[in-house]
Structures are given as C-alpha cells and as structure tokens.
C-alpha cells in the first residue's frame, strides 16, 4: 500500500512539473509575441529594433534556486570606423533603474562613486550610511 501511494505521489509531482514547465514555456512565447506586436503597433521600424543587442541571462534568487531567464535589449553605439571599440565618453556615464534596478543604482553609486556622471534611481532603496561616498553626484 505504501509503495502504491509513493508511486501516485511521484506521478502527481511529475504531472505538476510538466504543467509548470509548459505554462512557463507558453508564458515566454506569449511575452515574445506581445513584444513583437507592441513594436509593430507603435510604428517602430523593425530594423531599428535589430540594432539593439538582445541579451539573455539566467539568474537564481535565494528563495528560488532554479535559474530564471531575463531578456533585455541593449542599445549599442555605432562603431568608430577602422577601430572594433565603442565611442563611450567616460565622463558621461549615467545610471538609472526602477524598483530593484533603483536598488542596484544606489548600490552601484556607493561602490563605484567615481564611475558615474549622474544617477537616477527610481522607486528603489539604498543604504543611507553610504551617502557620503556620492554626495557630489547629480541626481
């Protein structure tokens, strides 16, 4: 009797795992579809979107150990002719972020106060004891 219950429990877990995986796959496909549709409905040139580098990262959280995908687009500046470097003005590097990105913005300016020309954290918290490191930084 115990063996049958254990088998049923394993089957239930496998079915739930399959359903969870399927739901996540459908969710990612739907997000990709809506992103594509949103680009078209706003009249944005698809070739322009192609100039943005697509970035995909896997990350885990302390409470959720299974890696999660993170998708973003990164606007790459035009390359300087005859040179494979980006034309970045090191005196004009700005940082911003919303929510958790706001938290990262505060963290980054505390860790690297001389790297950024200005910061714009939005809806994020920071450590007030680090303010003395970046009091000169425009917000």
- Strand order of the biggest β-sheet: 1-2
Summarize the amount of helix as a percent range.
40-55%
- Contiguous uncertain segments of 5+ residues: none
Which percent range describes the beta-strand content?
A: 15-25%
User: What is the end-to-end distance?
Assistant: 67 Å
Number of helices: 3
The largest pleated sheet is described as:
2 strands, antiparallel
Helix/sheet category: alpha+beta
Coarse morphology = flat
Can you count the beta strands? 4
The Rg value, from CA coordinates, equals 22 Å
What's the overall average pLDDT, rounded? 79
Helix-strand pattern, N to C? HHEEEHE
GO molecular function: serine-type peptidase activity
Keywords: Signal
InterPro entries: AB_hydrolase_fold, Peptidase_S9_cat, Plant_Biomass_Hydrol_Est
Protein name: Prolyl oligopeptidase family protein
Describe the secondary-structure layout.
Elements lengths: L1 H40 L4 H5 L1 E8 L8 E8 L18 E5 L1 H12 L6 E5 L17
Parallel strand pairs: 3-4
Antiparallel strand pairs: 1-2
Task: Describe the model.
This is Prolyl oligopeptidase family protein. Pfam families: Peptidase_S9. InterPro entries: AB_hydrolase_fold (IPR029058), Peptidase_S9_cat (IPR001375), Plant_Biomass_Hydrol_Est (IPR050955). It is a single chain. The protein is of the alpha+beta class. It has a domain at 89-139. The protein is built from 3 helices and 4 strands; from the N terminus they run ααβββαβ. It is flat, with a radius of gyration of 22 Å. The protein starts with a helix and ends in a 17-residue tail after the last strand.
């Amino acid at each position: 009797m115990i063996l049958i219950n254990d088998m049923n429990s394993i089957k239930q877990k496998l079915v739930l795992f399959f359903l969870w995986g399927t739901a996540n796959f459908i969710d990612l496909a739907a997000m990709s579809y809506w992103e594509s549709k949103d680009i078209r409905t706003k009249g944005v040139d698809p070739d322009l979107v192609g100039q943005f580098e697509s970035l995909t990262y896997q990350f885990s959280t302390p409470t959720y150990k299974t890696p999660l995908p993170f998708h973003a687009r990164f606007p790459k500046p035009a390359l300087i002719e005859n040179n494979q470097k980006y034309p970045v003005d090191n005196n004009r590097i700005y940082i911003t972020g919303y929510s958790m990105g706001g938290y990262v913005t505060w963290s980054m300016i505390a860790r690297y106060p001389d790297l950024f020309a200005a910061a714009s954290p939005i809806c994020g918290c920071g450590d007030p004891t680090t303010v003395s490191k970046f009091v000169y930084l425009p917000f």
